Amino acid sequence: MKRNRRIKILATLGPSSDKEEIIMQLAKAGADVFRINMSHASHEVLATTVSYIRNVEKEIGHPLGILVDLQGPKLRIGKFIDGSTNLTQGNIFTLDNDKKDGDNSRIYLPHKEIFSSVSVNDRLLLDDGKIQLKVISVTKGKIKTDIVHGGKLSDKKGISLPDSILGMSSLTKKDKADLQKALENEADWIALSFVQRPEDIYEIRKIVKGRAGILAKIEKPQAISRLEEIITLSDAIMVARGDLGVEMPLEEVPGLQKRMIRLARVHGKPVVVATQMLESMITSPVPTRAEVSDVSTAVFEGADAIMLSAESAAGDYPIKAVKTMDNVAVAVESDDNFQSIIRAQATKPEPTAADAISAATRQIAETLDLSAIVTYTSSGSTGLRAARERPAIPIIALSPNLRTTRRLSLVWGLHCVQTEDAKSLEDMVSRASLISLQEGFAQVGERIAITAGVPLGTPGATNMIRIAFVKKQDK
Question: Of 115, 131, 160, which one is at a domain's C-terminal end?
């Protein structure tokens, strides 16, 4: 399962791909982490899919990550008398708490939190932004708006509030039930939707209690204003470009993507770029040139992972989509400009011994042209620090904790292997050399860099670098 690329591929599972044999093919094609979307999956489907992934993991002998994506609040309008209506620009349209079916002048809004959250001049976006309203007055149970962009509007369409912070939790009753099932099934990552503020991360942390990594989906403008705080509190973030593109001007999203990737790297947190990366491959065996360029941009920017959504979940060519993404990533990382671009984005290490060791290891490994960097990591923090440096040398992350290796499968450049803790310095060197050889990263006589914490087995105490030759007698 040695990859020829550093960036990871996150593949969403669904009707086209949630069978064990397909998951096996996806893993072999290049998928490192699998996403289960709770907007569409039942608890039974969740448990079955997790068992399939674990069976595949056992057969291939390489850790695979599982990300469970919580649905989050779904804000929708009520129904119309005739199933739909046409809204005309310049007319007045009211959203109220009257449960009667609506018409072209009003509609029922079943979310009381919205009435207390919006203000005059706030925008309301309906049907993925196709309809835009501007609030002109707010009274108890009634929001009167001016129709800025009209069009056909049908029953139960979604509503977004890009200018308002809603006084509601990002975890619904359904999300809490789904979260418990995800934790029972030992999911490695939990993706939190509808993040507006740092308090949303505090809330889910109280429930998760370290049993899984928390990935904050950045999909709302409100989160952008407190982005650094949210990144600091999260274990990873996702650039959810689809929802961002609905609630913000589309032309601002590429710049935000670049900003989020760089800020996540500064904080040593994995960052996933998602939405429409190979959208045309839902129905086509080949992507568009623009999609290939989009994937390439994420790779050049140093994202930790790129994600397939409907392409692998419900598309006609799930395996081809993963192979295409893999091929593009390999080509970009082989480009002569790749390393110089990645190095130009480097940030200063934190003033800690562990960060200094990681930075020095990268420089030593590249200066001496070593075959690999081998890092012993119990909790995963040392692996994250090594990846943050984005070395040109492969990184092998060794951990006695299988849960750690699975979680790190989302992180840039880490080839994760579960192994026992080293019993001595000699065992540490011997074990690192043998695994480098077995996993295909080094040959006999070549050199590797080894980082670890002394005393051995102490979490978060990386304080040593060792240069070692890979020897024939290592067993």
Answer: 160
